[in-house]
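Quiz preparation item.
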C-alpha cells in the first residue's frame, strides 16, 4: 500500500471511529432528544455520494470508510426514529 492510500485509510478510520461514542451513548441511553434528524439525514446522503465518488475513482479508502460511517449514521437515525 502506498503512503497516500495509508493516509486515506487513517483519515477515514479516524472520522469513522468518531461516530462510535455517539452510537454507543444513544444505544445505551435510548435518548435521542438532542439528535438532529436533518443533520444526520443530510450527512447520510453526503456519505452516500462519497461512496459513489469512491466507486467512480476505484478508491478503497473512500469506499470502505464511508460505507462504515454511513452504516453508523443510519443506525443513529434509526435509533432516533425508534426512541424519538
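Solution:
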Amino acid at each position: 500500500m502506498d503512503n497516500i492510500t495509508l493516509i486515506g485509510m487513517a483519515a477515514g478510520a479516524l472520522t469513522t471511529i468518531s461516530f462510535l461514542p455517539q452510537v454507543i451513548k444513544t444505544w445505551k441511553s435510548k435518548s435521542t432528544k438532542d439528535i438532529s434528524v436533518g443533520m444526520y439525514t443530510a450527512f447520510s446522503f453526503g456519505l452516500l455520494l462519497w461512496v459513489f465518488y469512491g466507486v467512480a475513482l476505484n478508491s478503497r479508502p473512500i469506499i470502505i470508510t464511508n460505507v462504515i460511517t454511513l452504516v453508523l449514521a443510519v443506525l443513529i437515525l434509526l435509533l432516533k426514529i425508534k426512541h424519538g
